[in-house]
Design brief:
The protein has 67 residues and is α+β, with helices and mostly antiparallel strands. Helices cover 37% and strands 16% of the residues. This is HECT-type E3 ubiquitin transferase.
Length: 67
């Protein structure tokens, strides 16, 4: 996965480009804002009708529970 910076404010949500394995991630002001925006983006996705719980589980295991 490639993570690219996009905006420089706390307004925009992250955007994923799954075909290209890219995540556009704004430069947020804090880790708490980052976490909130990522969770909001996952919970309000407009994807390919995949099970939302699976997406959230994958997200948490990748970003928050790595050792």
């Amino acid at each position: 996965m490639t993570i690219q910076r996009s905006h420089t404010d706390d307004i925009h949500l992250p955007v994923s480009h799954t075909c290209f394995n890219v995540l556009d991630l704004p430069s947020y002001s804090s880790k708490e804002v980052l976490k909130t925006k990522l969770i909001d983006a996952i919970q309000h996705n407009q994807g390919f009708n995949l099970k939302q719980q699976s997406s959230i589980s994958i997200f948490y295991s990748y970003f928050f529970f790595r050792g």
